[in-house]
Design brief:
The chain has about 280 residues and is α/β, with parallel strands linked by helices. The protein folds into two domains: about 90 residues, Leucine Dehydrogenase, chain A, domain 1 (Rossmann fold, 3-Layer(aba) Sandwich); about 120 residues, Rossmann fold (3-Layer(aba) Sandwich). Helices cover about 35% and strands about 15% of the residues. It contains nine helices and eleven strands. The protein has a six-stranded parallel β-sheet with strand order 1-11-8-7-5-6. The chain has a three-stranded parallel β-sheet with strand order 3-2-4, sandwiched between helices. Helix 1 packs parallel to helix 9, helix 2 packs across helix 9 and helix 6 crosses helix 7. The longest helix has 18 residues. The chain binds ligand LMY7XDAE. Catalyzes the oxidation of 5,10-methylenetetrahydrofolate to 5,10-methenyltetrahydrofolate and then the hydrolysis of 5,10-methenyltetrahydrofolate to 10-formyltetrahydrofolate.
């Protein structure tokens, strides 16, 4: 039997724990979300993050800029938030309009407030295994694996995708959890031969329906990070129905990794407010 991992339930538990810790704090942790432009999906994600902030009892600081905002205008907002003592975490929602340079803007966020774990400094701390804030989706995947009792130590993990947001930090985190990790990407020859080695298969390729039964080792745990709006609703990178009776566990889309991204953002904001910064 293939278990569908309930990411919503795990995320709710994580968020309830954060809210309980926040209740004992004064002043409250503050998160600033920065949204540039009018991408509809980004607007939905930012609204969900702000709702989660309020439900956790944290303070919500939000800035919206038009799609025409310049690099200097976005940088000025980030610098103002960086200097605000009521703001413990800053998040620049991605993707940005094409004329902006996301890496240069992200690096305006001080590592101590980098609740997305995406600055050059945070990435360096992760690569060196030093304390710091970790990207939300990969740390949510680790939390999901732990919640299901999936052993990482000594297991073979394959990550499909090498983005700075998910694939790269995911591979680092799995390595730090003692898995033997392979990163596959669009130039990988015979992808199925590589992914069939995996006890833990994390798919973050951004390609709708890329992974099917032929890619999965019997008994594997499959984590689907893909999210695609199709005529049949939200779907992932994994052809979920094909994995019944093949995989031991699979995350659904929706209701798998997505809710964990927001839950781990709450965890990171609490950490940014309570720990000595990196
Ligand atoms: N600055 C960032 N930008 C982006 C990130 C990120 O971690 N930091 N990740 C993605 C989008 N994202 C968060 O921003 C995100 C994606 C999906 C979900 C989620 O809960 N999805 C639900 C479905 C919701 C829906 O679309 O209807 C689910 O999977 O069940 C939360 C956050 C890119 N940008």
């Amino acid at each position: 039997m293939t278990v569908t991992i309930d990411g919503k339930a795990v995320a709710q538990r994580v968020r309830a724990q954060v809210a309980a810790e926040v209740a004992a704090l004064d002043p409250k942790p503050g998160l600033a979300t920065v949204l540039v432009g009018d991408d509809p999906a980004s607007a939905v994600y930012v609204a969900s993050k702000r709702r989660a902030v309020r439900e956790a009892g944290m303070s919500d600081h939000h800035r919206s800029l038009p799609a025409t905002a310049t690099q200097a205008e976005v940088a000025a907002v980030l610098e103002e938030l960086a200097a605000d003592p009521a703001v413990h975490g800053i998040l620049l929602q991605l993707p940005l309009p094409a004329h902006l340079d996301p890496d240069a803007l992200i690096d305006r966020i001080p590592a101590a407030k980098d609740v997305d774990g995406l600055t050059t400094r945070s990435a360096g701390l992760l690569a060196r295994g030093e304390p710091g804030l970790r990207p939300c989706t990969p740390s949510g995947v680790i939390e999901l694996l732990e919640s299901q009792g999936v052993k990482t130590r000594g297991s073979r993990a394959v990550v499909v995708g090498r983005s700075a947001l998910v694939g790269h930090p995911m591979a680092e985190l799995l390595l730090q959890h003692d898995a033997t990790v392979t990163v596959a990407h669009k130039h990988t020859a015979d992808l199925a031969a590589v992914t069939r080695e995996a006890d833990i298969l994390v798919v973050a390729a951004g390609v709708h329906g890329l992974i099917g039964a032929e890619h999965v080792k019997p008994g594997a745990t499959v984590i689907d990070v893909g999210i695609h709006r199709t005529a049949d609703g939200l779907q992932g990178d994994v052809r979920r129905a094909e994995l019944d009776g093949v995989a031991a566990r699979v995350t659904p889309v929706p209701g798998g990794v997505g809710p964990m991204t927001i839950a781990m953002l709450m965890v990171n904001t609490l950490r940014a407010a309570t720990m000595d910064g990196p």
